[in-house]
């Protein structure tokens, strides 16, 4: 199975750390964030498609065409137009059948990601205190995705989309609408998809979202403390 990892963002909120380094290569616990993400991928993933943009050459140089036994392809996202555009850039390499999509700056535990693989279409969510900067998930008692809204002012739940999803070629039948900031979000496409097809919501055990230098410092300190205890 293939995994698609959009990794083209500039990491503006992580400046000055990202002025000369893509956020995916910032070091956490002694190795780049993206390497932690590779390690969290289920064994069923045998090919990775990385969508690169800002300082993408450094990502290509670091990981090459094969990393720890997994084949890697690179696709360039030429303009900053959001996560839907990133996925669209990789469409010809994805082909048919289900694939995993996740982002290059969030770390999820392997067990939680693996839970998605049993479904045809699924998203991974996590309860957070303030979900307004994420996609917010509303689900039915049977786990079906009822609603998904990107960065709402008044969230209907505390379930935030982690960005990890199982999709297939049907997602490309639901193009995203352009937001006021000019970007196209794949969450909009997933929301449309869920109106016509059964999309299941699973909940994550661990989600480390790294958006600011303070996030990276805090998670690194916690990582070191955990290593000392183990």
Automatic annotation (TrEMBL):
InterPro entries per UniProt = GlmU-like, NTP_transferase_dom, Nucleotide-diphossugar_trans
Q: Name one GO molecular function term.
A: nucleotidyltransferase activity
Q: Pfam families, per this entry?
A: NTP_transferase
Q: Mind telling me which CDD domains this protein's record contains?
A: NTP_transferase
Q: Outline the extent of the Nucleotidyl transferase domain.
A: 2-224
**Which keywords, in A-to-Z order, does the entry hold?**
Nucleotidyltransferase, Transferase
Name the PANTHER family on file: N-ACETYLMURAMATE ALPHA-1-PHOSPHATE URIDYLYLTRANSFERASE, NUCLEOTIDYL TRANSFERASE
- Output this protein's name: Nucleotidyl transferase domain-containing protein
């Amino acid at each position: 199975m293939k995994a698609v990892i959009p990794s083209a963002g500039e990491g503006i909120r992580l400046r000055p750390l990202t002025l000369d380094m893509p956020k995916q290569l910032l070091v956490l616990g002694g190795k780049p964030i993206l390497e932690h993400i590779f390690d969290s991928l289920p064994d069923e993933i045998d090919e990775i498609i990385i969508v690169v943009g800002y300082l993408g050459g450094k990502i290509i140089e670091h990981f090459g065409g094969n990393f720890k036994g997994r084949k890697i392809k690179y696709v360039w996202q030429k303009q900053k137009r959001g996560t839907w555009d990133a996925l669209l850039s990789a469409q010809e390499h994805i082909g048919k059948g289900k694939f995993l999509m996740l982002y290059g700056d969030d770390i999820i535990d392997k067990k939680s990601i693996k839970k998605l693989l049993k479904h045809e279409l699924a998203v991974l969510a996590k309860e957070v205190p303030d979900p307004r900067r994420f996609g917010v998930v509303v689900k039915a008692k049977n786990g079906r995705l009822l609603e998904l809204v990107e960065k709402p002012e008044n969230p209907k739940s505390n379930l935030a989309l982690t960005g990890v999803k199982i999709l297939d070629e049907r997602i490309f039948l639901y193009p995203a609408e352009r937001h006021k900031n000019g970007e196209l979000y794949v969450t909009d496409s997933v929301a449309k998809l869920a109106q016509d097809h059964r999309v299941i919501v699973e909940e994550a055990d661990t989600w480390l979202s790294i958006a600011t230098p303070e996030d990276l410092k805090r998670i690194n300190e916690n990582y070191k403390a955990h290593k000392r205890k183990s």
